[in-house]
Amino acid sequence: MPPKHQTPTDTQTQAVNLRVRSDIRSLIDRAAKAQGKTRSDFMIDAARRAAEESLLDQTLVRVDQKTYDHFLEVLDQPPSGEGFERLMAAAKPWQE
């Protein structure tokens, strides 16, 4: 007996239709080709990344006052240490 209600699984796909100007479509096609992807794969990857970034940008972290005060104290300290010194001594690509 077939299920009364089917829900999409990770392997099922659904169509998404977009209308886009021809110059943007050409740009997308060039970028997809440069990455060895189909237009659909390129657009899906780009949309997924944008969606994830958008949701991550909305993440709220709650901490107690003591932890928050410590966080601000650490941020207010000037950077230092071997790693920082090495980074500052490294060649800058824009100065070559």
TrEMBL record:
The keyword Transcription regulation applies. It holds the Pfam family TacA1. InterPro entries: Ribbon_hlx_hlx, TacA_1-like. One of its GO terms (molecular function) is DNA binding. Coiled coil: none annotated. GO terms for biological process: regulation of DNA-templated transcription. Keywords: DNA-binding, Repressor, Toxin-antitoxin system, Transcription, Transcription regulation. Gene3D superfamilies: Single helix bin (1.20.5.780). Belongs to the TacA antitoxin family. This is DUF1778 domain-containing protein. It comes from Methylomicrobium album BG8.
